[in-house]
Write a structure and sequence with these properties.
Low-confidence stretches: none
Shape: globular
Oligomer: single chain
Number of strands: 20
Number of helices: 15
Radius of gyration: 23 Å
Bound molecules: flavin-adenine dinucleotide
Helix content: 25-40%
């Protein structure tokens, strides 16, 4: 009888669970798929808690609907009817102690409609004129990767970058805008410039197909019982005996065509294929001889804390309609973004209440994440008083620290990933290193990566 093959997936966050799900679906009865997770729970950064009737997301709260793989998987899991789209669509930027609506038609900060841009209080007249210069500027000469900051500063000027693009992006990508890779995060803008020269013209063209009076839809989706309900459903599809919780992979050794994994419970596990979905900083001890991982050692990861607060509605008036605001980096507030959760996701908050979820840990000011819960709460409340005039004490505060949890995609990121993949292919056949440190941080990106690695691994072991 043919010997059974085995695929081991390390890490039970979204990438690992997706890999395990698709590998179990694709593999024949002759291939066993196992998942090893260090923690007692699955989901990694996805964690939903229900506190006093409030549905609190401690990590991500939703995913961008345009990237379809998460919706596809939700349908496959029978969860389509549980998807919810964000209801309020307007959001704000805090500049000079004032909340300014993000101008209508701005795509990642690039203006596509003149009227809202010209009338916006976000930019000075010279700042607006500088942005319009994009219409005449030649293409950026180099085809090489550059930072988001460098690219947009050249096309639209410093003011649009600092008052709009930087605050919008710093919520998604940790790190400074002048360090983040354009190629790894928004390659479409690079391509657009290549094709159309002007970003404003290029975006106008792509938006020409959108009917002028089309109703505005929220761009994000989540699940009415929280993102963790998706994790629960996904993990329930895995064979129970295939999931090892509270078990850390501590060492990995190559043995000819196979691999031996040493586990924290002193047991070992052999595998024909290994898919690591760990954050990059956890890999150096696991793969000390993968030389291209050395250049990742210096790659920093950002730390943030999420601070969810519930209030009685009668005590808190948020006189703005929208999903929340992001804060310009020049301001001296501790919070870098705030979601008006009850407005963005009405299902999350009991009637007669308000929920705000703030992020602290601006690049360069991450020490706040190490303060006590009380100190963080205090700093957030001081900011909220100043910005929104909120003086009420919250009914509860839920602080979650995410230390070194936001991968920084620095200039040259894609090339580093390619070098790593090339080395794995040449010297470590049957090992995949994937997940949010590498091929995209968004939840649908994690699904894409987990699925791709799973299908390749099944193909390899069964060929
Ligand atoms: P992780 O979730 O980090 O999973 C890795 C797993 O590996 C963990 O469970 C860990 O315990 C386990 N592990 C570690 N070491 C070992 C070991 N040696 N052996 C075994 N297991 C191990 N994305 C969005 O699309 N929308 C959002 O709104 C959004 N908001 C975010 C807000 C915050 C505060 C953060 C931190 C991230 C946010 N993201 C968001 C990004 C997104 O949440 C992550 O990119 C994604 O969840 C990462 O999934 P992953 O499986 O790759 O990694």
């Amino acid at each position: 009888m043919e010997e059974k093959k085995r695929i081991v997936i390390i890490g039970g966050g979204l990438t690992g669970l997706t890999a395990a799900y698709y590998a179990q679906q694709e593999a024949s009865a002759n291939t066993e798929v196992l998942l090893v997770e260090a923690s007692h729970r699955l989901g990694g950064k996805i964690e939903t808690v229900n506190q006093n009737g409030f549905l609190i997301e401690r990590g991500p709260d939703s995913y961008i609907a345009r990237k379809e793989s998460m919706t596809v998987l939700a349908k496959e899991l029978g969860m389509e009817d549980q998807l919810v789209r964000n209801s309020a669509t307007k959001s704000y930027v805090l500049v000079n102690k004032q909340l300014h609506p993000i101008p209508e038609g701005a795509v990642m900060g690039v203006p596509t409609e003149w009227r809202p841009f010209i009338t916006s209080g976000l930019f000075s007249l010279p700042g607006k004129m500088r942005a319009a210069y994009d219409l005449f500027l030649p293409k950026t000469a180099t085809g090489a990767d550059i930072s988001i900051g460098q690219f947009f500063r050249r096309r639209l000027g410093d003011e649009v970058v600092e008052n709009l693009i930087e605050p919008l992006l710093s919520g998604i990508y940790a790190g400074k805008i002048d360090d983040i890779s354009l190629q790894a995060t928004f390659p479409q803008f690079m391509k657009m410039e290549e094709r159309e020269r002007s970003l404003i013209k290029g975006l106008n063209k792509t938006r020409a197909n959108v009917p002028k009076n089309a109703p505005k839809k929220g761009q994000f989706l989540t699940f009415k019982n929280g993102l963790e309900s998706f994790i629960d459903e996904l993990s329930s599809r895995l064979k129970e005996e295939s999931v090892y919780r509270r078990t850390k992979v501590v060492d990995l050794e190559r043995m000819g065509q196979r691999y031996k994994l040493k586990l924290s419970n002193d047991e070992t596990m052999e595998a024909d294929a290994v898919i690591s979905t760990l954050p990059q900083q956890a890999l150096h001890t696991l793969f000390p001889t993968v030389t291209s991982l050395k250049e990742w050692k210096e790659t920093p990861s950002g730390s943030v804390a999420t601070v969810a607060m519930g209030f009685k509605a009668e005590n808190v008036q948020v006189p703005f309609d929208g999903t929340g605001f992001v804060v310009s980096r020049k301001s001296d507030y501790s919070i870098k973004a705030c979601t008006w959760t009850d407005k963005k996701w009405p299902h999350s908050t009991p009637e007669g209440h308000v929920m705000l979820r703030c992020f602290v840990g601006k690049p360069g000011h991450e020490a706040i994440v190490d303060l006590s819960d009380d100190q963080i709460q205090q700093a957030v409340l001081e900011d909220l008083k100043d910005i929104l005039g909120i003086e009420a004490k919250p009914l509860f505060t839920n602080v979650t620290r995410w230390k070194k949890a936001m991968p920084q995609y620095q200039v040259g990121h894609k090339q580093k990933v390619q070098r790593l993949e090339a080395e794995l292919k040449a010297k470590w056949p049957g090992v995949w290193i994937t997940g949010s440190s590498f091929g995209g941080v968004g939840l649908p990106d994690c699904i894409d990566q987990g699925k791709k690695a799973a299908l390749e691994a099944v193909n390899m072991v069964e060929e």
